[in-house]
Amino acid sequence: MAIASKTWQRSLKCGSRRNVCAIYPLSLHNRAVGVHGRTLAARSGCLLPCADKRGRNRQSYIDNMKKTTLLALCLATSLSAAAQGAKIKTVTPVAVTTTAGEVPMLPYRLWVTYTDGSGEYRQVKWMNSSLETEQEAADAAKHPAGSAYDVQGYVIGDNKTAAGYPVTARVSVVATQPSAPLPQPVAEPLPLGSVQLIGDNRLTHNRDLDIDNLLSLDPRQQVYNYRDTYGLSTDGYPEADGWDSPTTKLKGHGTGHYLSAMAMAYVACPDKAKRQQIKKNIKLVVDQMRECQERTFVFDKQLGRYREARDLAPEAELRTMGGTWKDFDRYKTDYAHYGYGYINAIPAQHCALIERYAPYNNEEGVWAP
Q1: Is 53 domain-assigned?
Q2: What angle do CA 249, 254, 259 make, to 5 degrees?
Q3: What pLDDT digit, counting tens, does each position of 174-226 carry?
Q4: Contact 24, 31 (CB under 8 A)
Q5: Rounded alpha-carbon distances, angstroms, from residue 117 to 11, 12, 112, 358
Q6: Do both 56 and 146 map to the same domain?
Q7: Closest CA to 33 of 25, 41, 52, 66
Q8: Residue 44 resides in a domain
Q9: Residue 216 belongs to some domain of the structure
Q10: Do 170 and 209 have their domain in common?
């Protein structure tokens, strides 16, 4: 739920009473909720008594509150205006410019205002994502400089129509886009190798602990999912776990964190032997990922070029592409069609599913949009 920088209030009915719930923009784990001028602390979904400014405890007041009122207050802190029945009243108008021969860049979310006066950002699905529509938009003969056209879209999750709440973007076509001014930096960061921690202190102690922890990790585990996705043997490679387990569609992202941490550790490590081991582990992971990537270097004689991401599948197939684990097991055998240079621990079809607004569901859709 989007919470404005100022305290806002929403009224909700509980039986015959009308209670006002004010939600303050604090952390999700420690919110302050005002009830008829009293103050309660909401921590981990439970309402706990707090003292007022004069130090008097409101426990007796809480004990007298009805369970239905408490439930309504808990729900009010977690439900958006749309979920509580408020309808969209207005949507921020969209007007963009694009260069002739180019596809316009449209915002992925818009600010909406509800009938109860509240507002929040909502995701928008634009109806210009198909290849044919993009090619038409980029046709300078059809949309020359000086012309304008509309792109239809919908606020996702609204039931005004079957597709959502309708919105329109006005696209003005220009001959050239003005160049954006370059930022003027006021400070330059120091290269990591130019800074050295010295002495026997907490900073050097924590640095050494981090380095030892990184060296305790098996680098082969970092490439397990990559090898599995590119049809390479995983014998002798420990299976990844947690968010990188083979049963999550976020797998492989931890390898990026690992390589970044190892690169920084290599620069910061004062121990030569450990530096060499860090370098060795980095090389193992990079070489393994390169082996996976090389499996996408496929020259297509019919196309007369190497296969690219755009050749993953025909448009009709992309529209009906499945997202179950059974589907992904099949995609893993098709690494030759991932596209030149594609490197990821999950098949390229996952990216296509994200672009198609597949459901946010680890079992049948996508995980990380």
Answers
A1: yes
A2: 145
A3: 998 777 778 888 888 888 889 899 999 999 999 999 999 999 999 999 999 99
A4: yes
A5: 12, 14, 10, 31
A6: no
A7: 41
A8: yes
A9: yes
A10: no
